[in-house]
Hints:
Layout: H1 26-30, E1 60-67, E2 73-80, E3 88-104, E4 110-128, E5 133-146, E6 149-163, E7 169-183, E8 196-204, E9 210-216, H2 237-249, E10 252-258, E11 264-271, H3 272-278, E12 289-296, E13 300-310, E14 313-323
Antiparallel strand pairs: 1-2, 1-14, 2-3, 3-4, 4-5, 5-6, 6-7, 7-8, 8-9, 9-10, 10-11, 11-12, 12-13, 13-14
Amino acid sequence: xxxxxxxxxxxxxxxxxxxxxxxxxxxxxxxxxxxxxxxxxxxxxxxxxxxxxxxxxxxxxxxxxxxxxxxxxxxxxxxxxxxxxxxxxxxxxxxxxxxxxxxxxxxxxxxxxxxxxxxxxxxxxxxxxxxxxxxxxxxxxxxxxxxxxxxxxxxxxxxxxxxxxxxxxxxxxxxxxxxxxxxxxxxxxxxxxxxxxxxxxxxxxxxxxxxxxxxxxxxxxxxxxxxxxxxxxxxxxxxxxxxxxxxxxxxxxxxxxxxxxxxxxxxxxxxxxxxxxxxxxxxxxxxxxxxxxxxxxxxxxxxxxxxxxxxxxxxxxxxxxxxxxxxxxxxxxxxxx
Length: 337
């Protein structure tokens, strides 16, 4: 009380509208929650990088449902229609339902129940500068209702994406969640959004059925740890190097897809920051790891993911992607596109 200071435990508590950082599909959830560099035919991928929208997404519909922690449910719906030389727009709708809560006064008298939920409308557009480089932008109105308190906000994303001619390698750079609260919940002070700069690469091995994904998040801030995570002034060079390596790894999300053919895909991901923030002191278990699989049934693709956020909490996601085009038979395999 005499010497106040700001101490943070997780960066998730420093900004509003945290639904903006949820995985938009089971495939993304299985690969650590982030895969902003893969150029594929799934319109849900555009949620984390608008530059990913492309002609292979023409008339593709993606639907995702996730059972989150503590009874929380969220989902994402996206549709894309290619406009040829004019680019590729994608429209998406996201929601999160925090469930029903008991309402009581300061004396403990039960008054009833209330709910909490958040929604966002995602309007994305991508334009191909040439056959290898594309740029994109997203405008995202947000509505949040927590009991009787409501808030409106607006966010935007900007991305650039490069892929090799063989589609074996891709690189991207994205600035996410520019914006502001338009109306606040109960006070005149506007809370900031979860702005971040991220980059990502993916590489398909030439002679093996594996695609590797690496994403570096929150590049605008190096130290994502609590203020108490500091070194002593007399720390050795080795200690300082290890400390800086730990801080650098907090930004990383890694994943690998096993693609033995056109029919199935098996995925494993690891989120360093998730494990850092949510593991128990003496036991980490599988915290930070995620797993998933997908099956291609022709005009329908089904994906499933299991993500471990905490030793006592797992999340389950299932996605369905459908080809609504009147012409064309199958959705291309991720091993090809």
